[in-house]
Structure of 2-aminomuconic semialdehyde dehydrogenase:
Amino acid sequence: MAHPQALLVLENFIGGKFVPCSSYIDSYNPSTGDIYCRVPDSGKEEVEAAVKAAKDVFPVWSSKSPSERSQILNKLADLIERDLEAFAQAESKDQGKTITFARTVDIPRAVHNFRFFASSILHHVTECTEMPTMGCVHYTSRAPVGVAGLISPWNLPLYLLTWKIAPAIACGNTVVAKPSEMTSVTAWMMCKLLEKAGVPPGVVNVVFGTGAKAGEALVCHPDVPLISFTGSTLTAQRITERSAPHCKRLSLELGGKNPAIVFDDADLSQCIPTTVRSSFANQGEICLCTSRIFVQRGIYSEFLKRFVAEAKKWKTGNPSDPTVDVGALISKEHLEKVRNYVKKAQAEGARVLCGEGVDPLALPPGNQKGYFMLPTVIAEVKDESCCMQEEIFGPVTCVVAFDTEEEVIKRANGVKYGLAATVWSGNVGRVHRVAHRLQSGLVWTNCWLVRDLNLPFGGMKASGIGREGAKDSYEFFTEVKTITIKH
């Protein structure tokens, strides 16, 4: 297939240099359906070169002091912030998200990730104990692990890639990263800034390609002792199997089927706009999005009426239009998958109150072939329906009624996932009781997505293994050693 010259062609970044690849895959602009970029289709050979570069420079990078590494991370943050608009434009075009979301969430958070770990690396302390009767002192020391394999997803491309790279290199590891082949552009743009920030060649290597080829080669590489992965539970199972022979340490941040529980004393003027946002932000393509809303029966009909009215206000269309709230979904296949969930719900007798198949979707002429879908609200869905059990990862949420606290806790916990939950109530005792009993790594009450990066992030059950955050990421990206001195 002939490609016009204007097509952006990415290259792998290995040992501080951009390296062409022997074969490429097409990447689409989700808002137009057109190919706009070619991404390296890397495999074993490219991963081998990247791991070698990372391994060779590890002694140099790991021997730098935390404050030296901190200065470099801060410089990289400054450079990304300087180019914030260019990064935001690229992220929006590559992923389909609105320019507003990329400008206000994705890129500022990527900058913050580097600044946060640049600071936190300076403040960790190690432990020490004494045994006077034995004449011994014990203390711990921490050292970087080696070459970190980092695999990041397509929904928040630079945001989640930097959430891994920043702690990995702050702790003194070197990195081979594989971003999603569907959203590789901002990672490639970041590579252009590494040298200027003072990152030595080989400390950060980025290999582009598919999970089946590049990801597999990275996970199976004997010289990569650690894998941090964000993505689907199914892929995580494969990573676990493939890395088991090498006894690698794994951090797996996986899917969610997150409940919002709205009690009859909730402040609906706060709850409804926030829950619309938690359901449809970034086209619902966030692992923390709300996709099951349990509303106490006394306020169910009022909630539903107001919630649907608010959802209908959200504008779907060209992501580069600053007035648009909902951009394009990542791919044609993903859009089809999300639509099929709505069809299944209808076939089971559920009611679609707004969005897909109910309201007309008017798109600008240039976006007619894009992968768009209106915010969709489904009611009267059974708990055992796939729409209530499986992660849809699109602008679809299900609203159901409940009667008692005991009942809703059981129903909220009745899925294989356990990533995030929100509880809406004015009763402080109830908020604490419910939060303690939900099987969920994160519980927000009367708010959503308010994050302190110092605290652990991660899920229970099929939502993952391990936690990320200041202390947790430090522990994951370092080896601890206990040293005993007899005096």
